[in-house]
Amino acid sequence: MTVMISADLHTHTRYSHGADSPAAMYAAAAAAGLEIIGFSEHSPRPEGFTYRHEYRDRLAASLPDYFREVRELRDGARPGQPRALLGMEMDWLEGEEAFTRRACAAEEFDYLIGSVHFLGRWGFDDGDEAWRAAGQEECNAWYDAYFTAWESMLGSRLFQIAAHPDLIKIFSVERFRAWLDRPESRARVRRCLVALRDAGMAMEISSAGLRKPCREIYPAPPIMELAAGLGIPVTFASDAHSVRDVARDFDRLADYARRFGFARQVVFERGGRRELPF
After folding, report:
1. Which domains occur in the chain, in start order?
2. pTM > 0.90: yes or no
3. Of 98, 112, 176, 201, whose CB count within 10 A is highest?
4. How far is CA 23 from CA 29, 73, 113, 147, in A?
5. From CA 275, how far away is CA 262, in angstroms rounded?
6. In 77-220, which ranges are continuous DSSP H helix?
7. Alpha carbon distances (Å) from 46 to 3, 106, 119, 161, 274
8. In 10 A of CB 67, how many CB atoms?
């Protein structure tokens, strides 16, 4: 498999709700021809922010093992092998900024990914029941709330990468497109992207949406167009939860990004930032 994109900065392991060990994910990155694999396990969440199939206790108990195993992969790589980076995907949770700040300081990370999965205490990507029952106006309110939370997350300046910018479309892609067609919605998204740029962050382009009910890359073309116009740097992600998804559909991601004029990806490593062509 030939990969034009050399770095996959968003992956998960068996320590949350993934299937495989860091070592197995690393081997998959090598087999895919990656130069860099970023491990970005989920962060712990406080009580009250709960999925139906919750992994909170297992993750909390296993974090020292996760940190140790990724450090060993990072520090033990031989010439010609991929570089492993130690990251974490941090949930932005309403009213829990102090908790998040402590989690961000738990280790010397190469980078941190910020993401929004909860509106209030509702994990909106944890099943489609509410979405199936909702009409356009109710969905519009949820989209507005999502980007309000996203802007707050960006404004915290705790993170280097903003994950899957329009994850909120996961179960309602047609209704999301209708919302995004509104001038006031485009203005809201553009304001978020300006905040992202001003925070010195990068926007993630992710193939994970192709494997989700929306069947669409994150983010959607109108958001890509806005980001390109603002000169926002980008990273690439599979959001892999198993070895079979590491670098998955990266050929499609490269073509997609180039359609909007992107030609370089950024990588964050040990406090530094650099650009790589793809």
Report:
1. 7-277 (3.20.20.140)
2. yes
3. 201
4. 10, 7, 21, 36
5. 12
6. 97-104, 129-133, 136-155, 173-180, 183-198
7. 38, 15, 15, 22, 34
8. 19
